[in-house]
What we know:
The complex is a heterodimer. Chain A is an alpha+beta fold. Chain A has helices at about 1-10, 15-25, 30-45, 50, 85-95, 100-105, and strands at about 110-120, 125-130, 135-140, 150-160, 165-170, 180-185, 195-200, 210-215. The longest helix of chain A has 18 residues, at about 30-45. By secondary structure, chain B is mainly α. Chain B has eight helices and no strands. Chain B is globular and about 50 Å long. The two termini of chain B are about 30 Å apart. At the A-B interface, helix 1, helix 3, helix 4, strand 5 and strand 6 of A face helix 1, helix 2, helix 3, helix 5 and helix 6 of B.
Amino acid sequence: MNDAVDYLLGELDPERAASFERSLAxxxxxxxxxxxxxxxxxxxxxxxxxxxxxxxxxxxxxPGAPAPAPASRRPxxxxxxxxxxxGLCALALLGVGxxxxxxxxxxxxxxxxxxxxxxxxxxxxxxxxxGLGDDRLTxxxxxxxxxxxxxxxxxxxxxxxxxxxxxxxxxxxxxxxxTLRLPLPVDPEAFRYFDISxxxxxxxxxxxxxxxxxxxxxx
Amino acid sequence: MQPHVASGDRAxxxxxxxxxRRDPDAVRELYAMHGRATFGFLVGMLRDRxxxxxxxxxxxxxxxxxxxxxxxxxxxxxGWLLAIARSRAIDHLRRRVPEPRDPSSAVALADGAxxxxxxxxxxxxxxxxxxxxxxxxxxxxxxxxxxxxxSQTEIAEATGVPLGTVKTRMVRGLTRMRDLLEDGQ
Lengths: 219, 185
């Protein structure tokens, strides 16, 4: 595919371009692939400048709608240090070395940890933890049944009035565990539970009604 | 175990369901996703930013209030929104038509005499909307290649990204756009 794209972009040198064209002439599958991609390249080449640098649209006004929920009600933490203290801290951090840096880089510690407990009899030994950061969450689950080919698990936010927001889907293998790191599109405190459901691969985007783990959104 | 990321199609159907329940946050999400493309289309169509701002509000109010009319089998949300935008823009042009009509003016759109321009704009802004759905790394190489005119080698030099990665992103970006466009996004 790299050669096909280079060819369509005109970035093959003459010798390779000639060789690629010989392949095109003899390979119907390659020819079909190139012809499927060519319209995209042509359309992008003719896209006017304003479409590449579109301005911001005006703010949306929805008459009668409640104000949008804030992205996060968690107060922003601010670290205020005097320069001398900051310098000492920096030296101390440097002294500790790369080990802490590597750990922090691998998995920043979330500010809130919440437990998920089994719902129903499907996975009575399952457990999970949700770590909430300012704008993302980490979920670790274990003891779940491995997914079959046509099923997966889905993480939801569930409200008192059965409002649901899907946060992401995942699969579990033979070890029964999974770790997810996801952005938080809404404030979880506006909902009551984190819920993990077992979903069939039937194309229905709604909740299957089969929950396996659930826990509160607040400690 | 890596999480399986939900497909855009699935996320879009979920958003459509929330829209059908008249969830105002769903229409705000829709606006964040596609408001730029519809507004660009309307500015191009109406050639009047203030009018485009008014019609833009109408488009998303209609999407919110009549979401049950959206049929995912007929295409993606972006295409649906752009179709609403096209209709409302034509309504706007019709309302401001002075009598007698000047057939050479842009208002001829209202009678279908210049549908070609509307279709061209629609196609352009659908493409721009789909570009906005790509991962940042892929849309960046496409923008550098097709807007700034940089070769893949020049992109690698300008960004410090290895040439092989630039080429991978170029292939993925183009094939992803092809798939989205073929799916009627």
